[in-house]
Amino acid sequence: MGVSVDEAVSTGPVRDHTPPARRFGGRGRSVLEIALLTVLAVVMLFPVLWMIETSIKENRDVYAIPAKFFDFTVTLDHFKDVFVASGGRSALSVSFLNSVVVAGVSTVLATVLGVPAAWAYSRFAVKAKKDQLFFILSTRFMPPVVVVIPIFLMYRQFGLIDTKLGLILIYTAFNVPFTIWMMKGFVDEVPAEYEDAAMLDGYTRLQAFWRFTLPLLLPGIAATAVFALIFSWNEFVFAIFLTSSDDVRTAPPAIAGLIGGTTVDWGLVAAASVVFALPVLVFAYLVRKHLVAGVTLGAVRR
Amino acid sequence: MSDPVPLTTDHPGQVASATPPAPGRSRRLSDRGLAVAFISPALLLLLAMSVFPLLWALYLSFTDYSATRGGPAHFVWFENYTAILTSAQVHLRALTTLIYVVGAVALQTVLGFAIAYLISRRTHGRGLLTTLFLVPMMLSQVVVGLFWKFMLDAQFGVINSMLGSLGLGQVEWLTRQRTALISLIVVDTWQWTPFIMLIALAGLTAVPKYLYEAASIDRASEWFRFRTITLPLVWPLLLIAVLFRAIEAFRLFDLVYILTSGGPGVSTETLSFHVYKVAFLGFNTGTASAYGILMVLVVIVLTQLYLRYLNKLKED
Predict the structure, then answer these.
(1) Per the domain annotation, does A4 fall within a domain?
(2) Chain B CB within 8 Å of residue A8 CB
(3) What ipTM was reported for this prediction?
(4) How many domains does chain A have?
(5) What keywords tag this UniProt record (chain B) (predicted)?
(6) Do A255 and A272 meet the contact criterion of CB atoms below 8 Å apart?
């Protein structure tokens, strides 16, 4: 069972029946705790709010000193600039499209490769199963800056530098370990007896998997795919070292490239960041039940 | 029966003996074949994209190969390794990385656990609070880095603006040696405190209520309950979160690249960033590979620790 945010909500208060603390009054302490939480929440959320605010400010308000918190002129120009450049699509919007393609295809591939493997690891007594699984997870922990050196040479050999296919391959490779670990948890939750029963009815093991287990796994597959999508979407190191042209570059290096010049259009950076981050937040909200498992790469589920 | 494929054995919980085997082939064999067919594509991809590159890097680390100069690589044996292990530059980066990892992970752990504890004591609005607190963690490091760079800007950054209206002095956050590393730690803490919080919260809500009830019958003090019930039960999970963060922090590259590019001077150059400079700006591919292999060794040790605790947690 994954401990989820929802579950954290639905369980009652931890200490319903305890007597109020003796030193503080129970109420005073509660007020103090709420105040503390509010302050912390404001600190945590302020940068996000500031980013959104900057993205809808006019340029002179963006650079105003002292900073303007409320009385600024609202404009959507920055968002327009993200998508439209003078006479056509902007380089940024192309990079967003590239990101959609690369993240999408690599997620599909990782799912197609990872889900059957997870099922096999869950159902069959594979030799040295634990070692294999740990090996798989540890490949995900390799420092990307180190891995990218030989990958760069390898891609140069095969002509994969600065191609979407190259990025898709490497993203698939780093999402497969996650998919296997995450999906194995979901497969473990589906009783193997379902398949055994189907096989008694004359189905082969493969048919039993396809017709009975897979449909039950669909919600888990969706959640896993969403996480893989987020990981690929946010990835930066491989993208910046393995691609260079505007036609191939994904959004993270493209957005980072906005601060390369002598003057930085922070309004545009903010708008691009908002456009880039919004889908992630929406998707993350959709899979909030599985966040604990997702962010630990499928390792922690209780 | 011979065993042509060494990868798998038959399923131990098989009830297959209850049914007559399908004509032509035994189910056992098809299970084995199925396992191989399902697992090997994924493993092959990992071998090609993770293991093979690392082996190649291992080979290059013993040579003086340079990606730009081209030409054949000459074997130099352990020269690259001794050069790196004895380099004062590398020692400095290792120290920077250590300060960063310890500082950031310690801050995140304390803050994250505190927030989780406070949230777990609330009755209402827990879902909303948790969701709000989790936002920074889901953002890309690029977005986080860019945004803090803007906020920490010495001239028109909002942080200095706020300090100014409080009557405090301006701080050059990213362009002074000492404050730059602190800024890096603060930004990383801002982003990853939610991670620790999320996992600590999972641990805290899993503590059985009856333990607290029993303790309150015994009139145990709050601190005593925290120390003897809450902490021991949450600690194993928290430790995994901490190790996970430590590995991630050790690999850190994106944030340094965006926020400070290692500067001012080399005050925020982590090991990852230094490897990048050696490999892609200095083009000493051989040296960079040796450097990378040494980093991989550290990651492997940390990962082994992580997996060991994970295993322990799963067995309990």
Answers:
(1) no
(2) yes
(3) 0.85
(4) 2
(5) Membrane, Transmembrane, Transmembrane helix, Transport
(6) yes
Chain A residue with minimal CA distance to B122? A13
The residue whose two tokens read 């493993």 is B43
User: Coil, strand, or helix at residue A84?
Assistant: strand
Q: What are phi and psi of B75, to 5 degrees?
A: -70, 125
C-alpha distances in Å from residue B107, one per residue of A106, A228, B175, B257, B268: 35, 28, 23, 22, 18
> Could you tell me if residue B227 is inside a domain?
yes
Q: Both tokens of residue A30?
A: 């509660």
Task: Show the DSSP H helices in B47-125 as ranges.
Answer: 52-60, 79-85, 88-120
B298 belongs to a structural domain:
yes
Same domain membership, residue A219 and residue A119 = yes
With an 8 Å Cβ cutoff, are A288 and B131 in contact? yes
Host domain of residue A28: 19-76
> A125-129, A160-164, B50-54: which range is least confident on average?
A125-129
Supply φ then ψ for residue B63, to 5 degrees: -125, 175
The parent domain of residue B36 ranges over 16-42
| B216 and B298, same domain (yes or no) | yes
Same domain, B29 and B117: no
A23-71 pLDDT, tens digit per residue, is 555 778 888 888 998 899 998 999 999 999 889 888 777 777 777 777 7
| Residue showing tokens 């919007």 | A93
Nearest CA of chain A to the CA of B64: how many Å?
Answer: 14
Determine the residue among A23, A113, A145 to mutate to test chain B binding: the one whose Cβ has the most chain B Cβ atoms within 10 Å: A145
- Both B97 and B224 in one domain: the answer is yes
* CB interface of A with B, residues 71-100, below 8 Å: none
A124 interfacial to chain B (CB closer than 8 Å): yes
Residue B128 lies inside a defined structural domain of this protein: yes
- Check A6 against B240: CB less than 8 A apart: no
| Bridge-based pairing state of the strands A88-89 and A84-85 | antiparallel
Radius of gyration of chain A (CA): 24
Tell me which residue of A296, A143, A8 sits closest to B241, measured CA to CA.
Answer: A296
Q: φ and ψ at A14, to 5 degrees?
A: -65, -40
**Contact predicate A273/B143, CB 8 Å:** yes
- Cβ A205 vs Cβ A199: under 8 Å: yes
Cα gap B58→A162, rounded to integer Å: 25
For chain B, say whether A196 makes contact (Cβ under 8 Å). yes
The last residue of one of the domains, among A76, A104, A125, is: A76
Residue of B18, B139, B151 with shortest CB distance to A50: B151
